[in-house]
TrEMBL record:
Gene3D superfamilies: 3.40.50.2300, Homeodomain-like
Name by which UniProt lists this protein: Xylose operon regulatory protein
Chain's gene name: xylR_1
Highest taxon of source: Bacteria
InterPro entries per UniProt: Homeodomain-like_sf, HTH_AraC, LacI/GalR-like_sensor, Peripla_BP_I, XylR_PBP1
Keywords of the record: DNA-binding, Transcription, Transcription regulation
CDD domains, per the entry: PBP1_XylR
Source organism (scientific name): Stieleria bergensis
One Pfam family hit: HTH_18
Ranges where the HTH araC/xylS-type domain occurs: 283-381
Length: 392
């Protein structure tokens, strides 16, 4: 019986992107000869495990984020593949997300929604954030839109304090022109932008639309409102890294140039699900509808939150959105129904009550009219696709 090759995976499990890399490595292993895998419990910028210094293994796949990790990988003299953008060991193969494609996807997503003011919120402590900012800025300027940049204090900096960062971000958000579409360098930064928008009472997505990167489903779903995000092909990164390491451990020569893996698409959630609107009154009523549609409101309730007459309100909705306030209320309710059908096992009667429909029969009629599917057909078709990509 052949001895399994021993591979150290120096990759954190604390975020969705890194877990995706590990899943890609697992996929490769399952399709080829099995490895004996060593996966220490560690944070992203952790020091290398002490056992690595005299470990008698066959190969390493690592997120080389620190000088100490770079030194440990080099000193091992083992075949190694880097899956970090930090690029601290330039003479070994390197697999990373394609930041040009990531930035262009996010920019096009916001431009297609009518935003002519676009901004990037960075973390300058990371190469991937710098590359995304450069590519996003270039793409925005080529579209003739206005570009703005907020450069955060890096969370790697000893000077970083969220209280200071929050105030600085709030000052910036209060002064940039609106409506504005914002790409944040990754989902955690995007969630912070949404938190500050809420404190400033800025309507998201009507005044400020926000998109992140990584599609961390826990973070995106917990954000308020739920966060749109670019979906990286982190499994593809892991699979490619495992393939390269296999070649190296088999004695093949592998070049050290970067392998860039394109993102899968964009998962559109409420934070960008909008057409850019410069009409403050319509933006205000849209926000009210988005926040209260599932509570059984009607157009009369909407009228209590605007100084416009009903005739003017209806006219402006048709001009700006191509639908009436009543249709927007139904649209928001159906969106929540779709989510509950896809993500829960709740019976239709419960879903109807939670989404502002008095009777499940009426919900069924409206859902079929809006989607072309019965609720049962939709649930059976889409429930198992919750983890797949969606480019919008």
């Amino acid at each position: 019986m052949a001895t399994r090759q021993r591979v150290a995976l120096l990759i954190e499990t604390s975020n969705a992107y890194a877990r995706g890399i590990l899943q890609g490595i697992i996929q490769y292993i399952n399709q080829h000869e099995p490895w004996s895998v060593y996966l220490p419990e560690q944070e992203r910028t952790a020091n290398p495990p002490a056992w690595l210094a005299d470990w008698q293994g066959d190969g390493i796949i690592a997120r080389v984020e620190t000088d100490s990790m770079a030194t440990a990988v080099e000193n091992s003299q083992l075949p190694a593949v880097d899956v970090s953008a930090a690029r601290r060991v330039p003479d070994i193969p390197w697999v990373e997300t394609d930041d040009l494609a990531t930035a262009e996807l996010a920019a096009d997503h916001l431009i297609e929604r009518g935003f002519r003011n676009l901004a990037y919120v960075s973390d300058p402590g990371f190469n991937w954030s710098k590359w995304r900012e450069q590519n996003f800025a270039n793409h925005v300027r080529q579209s003739s839109a206005e570009y703005f940049l907020y450069e955060s204090t890096s969370r790697l900096s000893a000077d970083y304090r969220w209280q200071d960062e929050e105030q600085s971000l709030a000052d910036w958000l209060a002064n940039v022109p609106k409506p504005i579409g914002i790409m944040a360098c990754y989902d955690i930064k995007a969630q912070q932008v949404l938190d500050v928008c809420r404190k400033l009472d800025l309507a998201v997505p009507e005044q400020v639309a926000v998109i992140g990167v990584d599609d961390d489903q826990l973070l995106c779903s917990l954000a308020s409102p739920p966060l749109s995000s670019v979906i990286p092909n982190s499994r593809g990164v892991g699979f490619e890294a495992a393939s390269l390491l296999h070649q190296m451990m088999s004695g093949q020569q592998v070049e050290s140039e970067p392998r860039l893996i394109k993102p899968l698409g964009i998962r559109t959630r409420q934070s960008t699900d909008v057409t850019a609107i410069e009409d403050d009154e319509i933006a205000k009523t849209l926000r009210y509808i988005r926040e209260h549609a599932i509570h059984g409101i009607n157009v009369h309730d909407v009228m209590q939150h605007t100084e416009l007459t009903r005739r003017v309100l209806e006219s402006r909705y048709q001009k700006l959105l191509g639908r009436s306030p009543h249709q927007e209320i139904i649209r928001q309710r159906i969106a929540k129904v779709r989510q509950l059908l896809q993500e829960t096992e709740l019976p239709l009667e419960t879903i109807a009550r939670r989404c502002g429909f008095e009777h499940s029969e009426y919900l069924s009629v409206m859902f079929k009219r809006e989607t072309g599917l019965t609720t049962t057909q939709f649930r059976n078709t889409h429930r198992d696709q919750a983890g797949t990509s969606s480019t919008v």
